[in-house]
Amino acid sequence: MSTLHESPQTQSIRNDWTREEVSRLFDLSLMDLVHQAQAVHRQHFDPNEVQLSTLLNIKQGGCSEDCKYCSQSARYQTGIDNEKLMDKDRVLQFARQAKANGSGRFCMGAAWRNVKNRNMDELVEIVQAVKDLGMETCMTLGMLSSEQAQQLADAGLDYYNHNIDTSREFYPEVVTTRSYDDRLDTLENVRSAGMHVCCGGIIGMGESREDRGGLLHTLATLPAHPGSVPINMLVPVAGTPMGDREMIDPLELVRTIAVARILMPASYVRLSAGRRSIGETGQALCFLAGANSIFYGDKLLTTPNPEETSDMALLEKLGMKTTGEPVASQEASCESGSCGCG
């Protein structure tokens, strides 16, 4: 078994990390942690390249879940209007614009607890239409049965996002209407259908650093690492139970991204919700720590995101380039044999 002090040039992709090892990474000095993460990042990716993805809310509001951070829960008064599933032609309008703006992956989110079979034909048509544009596709629709996962896979869906949010221990403080194992079961259905997994979580909900370690430990010990790992920082929404949370220290976001990069070396680590609040310097530190994917557009489902022009200006300032090309590799797997809403 490798150690935390193993040379990054020889560090293998592992699925057998222990909670103690993850805690020790979090406890490193930030300078040592970021240095190690950057070295691992350079082993697997171009450190000056960022993947662009666009996220579209194709069905807003009215979700029956009680996720305490979510503006789209029907249980909270957040000013979000309930909308039906967007029709295919309108989705394609947004997808064409995203492609023209340089995005290679088009992600579509629907505020559902789980997909209803009556919606499957429409969803299949949407996936096929976006694929015909030459874009990589991702959806987040809530829980999926094995049969529904297979239908989406057969339609050509590349990625399915289903975040686990936090550690197993802290999870009941966040959601009570579905269990942690419900989420893991959906991930298994997605993997079994042959799709890539996009799975991450949210920090800043009142959890401890140990909980942040627990989140990453769960992801890093899945049968295969998620191909994409979105790391979100809570954006408090008025009307939700977490609407009065104070912003977490941005350096804790940097630290979490660095640990994610070390644990899951070949995964895309996406700097997601909350990056607007950390400014250019904070985002640059996150890229240095191993983030190499961002959502591109002025809104993430219902919360603000940096405008496209400011994103491109920052990347130019940092001397970084973008890629809209599909991900070349599949989910990272262990050399010894074996991832908003969602």
General description of the model:
The structure is a single chain. By secondary structure, the chain is an alpha/beta fold. It is 35% helix and 15% strand. The chain contains ten helices and twelve strands. It has helices at 19-26, 30-44, 88-100, 120-132, 146-155, 180-192, 209-220, 250-263, 279-288, 308-318, and strands at residues 49-59, 105-110, 136-140, 159-161, 196-198, 201-203, 228-233, 268-271, 293-295, 299-300, 303-304, 321-323. The strands form two sheets. Strands 1, 2, 3, 4, 5, 6, 7, 8, 9 and 12 form a ten-stranded parallel sheet that branches. The chain is globular. Residues 1-9, 298-306 and 324-342 have low confidence and may be disordered.
List strands and helices in order, with pairings.
Elements: H1 19-26, H2 30-44, E1 49-59, H3 88-100, E2 105-110, H4 120-132, E3 136-140, H5 146-155, E4 159-161, H6 180-192, E5 196-198, E6 201-203, H7 209-220, E7 228-233, H8 250-263, E8 268-271, H9 279-288, E9 293-295, E10 299-300, E11 303-304, H10 308-318, E12 321-323
Parallel strand pairs: 1-2, 1-9, 1-12, 2-3, 3-4, 4-5, 6-7, 7-8, 8-9
Antiparallel strand pairs: 10-11
Helix pairs in contact: 1-7, 2-8, 3-4, 4-5, 5-6, 7-8, 8-9
